[in-house]
Design brief:
With 49 residues, the protein is an alpha+beta fold. It has 1 helix and 2 strands. The longest helix is centred in the C-terminal third of the chain and has 10 residues.
């Protein structure tokens, strides 16, 4: 099965990464902090700018 490319539009709100005490914090498009450990690990693994 071939992988599909998923295109995104960077003019729309998305996930934001900010430096916080000793690491990174992530916020969703609504401005809510992402606290789910699996989601944070996934975001760390993909190297979100």
């Amino acid at each position: 099965m071939a992988a599909k490319i998923v295109y995104s539009d960077d003019s729309k709100p998305g996930i934001t990464r900010k430096k916080v005490r000793g690491g990174w914090g992530y916020w969703d498009a609504k401005g809510d902090r992402i606290t789910d450990r699996d989601e944070i690990d996934r975001l760390n693994a993909i190297g979100l700018p």
